[in-house]
Amino acid sequence: MHIVHTLADLRRALKPAALRAFVPTMGNLHQGHLDLMQMARQEADTRVKTGGMTVASIFVNRLQFGPHEDFDTYPRTFERDCELLQANGCDVVFAPSEKDLYPEPQVFKVHPPAELADILEGAFRPGFFVGVSTVVHKLFNIVQPDLAVFGKKDYQQLMVICRMVQQMALPIEIIGGDTRRAEDGLALSSRNGYLSADERAEAVQLSKALKSLAAAARAGNAAGQLDVPALETAAMVALRARGWAPDYITLRRQHDLSPVSGPCAEPLVVLGAAKLGQTRLIDNLEV
Ligand code: PAF
Questions:
Q1: 25 CB within 6 A, ligand 1
Q2: Which of 80, 160, 162, 195 has the fewest CB atoms within 10 Å, i.e. is most exposed?
Q3: Is 2 a catalytic residue?
């Protein structure tokens, strides 16, 4: 496995490949990332007999952090990340410094449409999807992958990237990888490391709340009677009573994340974000 830091070294490492599969990350890898890496490896190996290449990037992207968010404290575990990537089928790790990726302030940015990017995560983290879209677009230009794998854990992010690729006619196939969960059901996340032991035991309640809402939505749809605002409010109230500070718990259409108010035959998804102590967790569940 090659580890490269500069664009020039990456271009040298990216020999002409029959197919290039890419997994962008911010490091501090857990099994969820490694699942994505394995998916990329498998796609590269099954789609072409020889010459399939996998690339992962590790870059904590300042552009997607708000002024009071955890950019400075975000865990950097580079050596361990590289070992894990090597053991999970990665050929090239691209880990640029800020100077390498943003040699001058990034003034050209990708602004995804408000109806997709200013709702849910975007409403609570203004500018987040501008930062994500800008860095992913830039990484796509640098790595020039044929396909890229993103986790469904960041459901809205995956949708924003899919729309960007479609709207900008980028010749890249986007694949969504399922969320990896701990045994109790908590979605794996780099930010779980911030939780105290008590908070970690409590953290599963977010996925439980989403599960209950998904079950209620299925039952309501089947009965032809679904009061979505009442279900969403009840879920938030229940979490608040346990000491959480929920930003949203909501039932949406999968295809554009637009709200649902009553029975709906379209594929749906429940999404939630809530703070437990100082740690903000997000999760989702397709209905
Ligand atoms: O999901 C992440 O880790 C980041 O948002 C990404 C896609 C690597 C962009 O910085």
A1: yes
A2: 80
A3: no
Q: Is residue 184 part of a domain?
A: no
User: With a 6 A CB cut-off, is 24 part of the ligand 1 pocket?
Assistant: yes
Q: Determine the Cα–Cα distance for residues 151 and 158; give it in Å rounded to an integer.
A: 7
- Structural domain tally of the chain? 2
Contact between 270 and 251 under an 8 Å Cβ cutoff? The reply is yes
**Are 121 and 215 contained in the same domain?**
no
Within-domain flag for 155:
yes
Atom of ligand 1 nearest to the CA of 25: 8
- Residue 213: give its domain's CATH number: 3.30.1300.10
166 and 216 in a common domain: no
| The pLDDT of residue 165 is above 90 | yes
Q: Which of 30, 33, 111, 137 is catalytic?
A: 33
- Tens digit of pLDDT for each residue in 17-39? 899 999 999 999 999 999 999 99
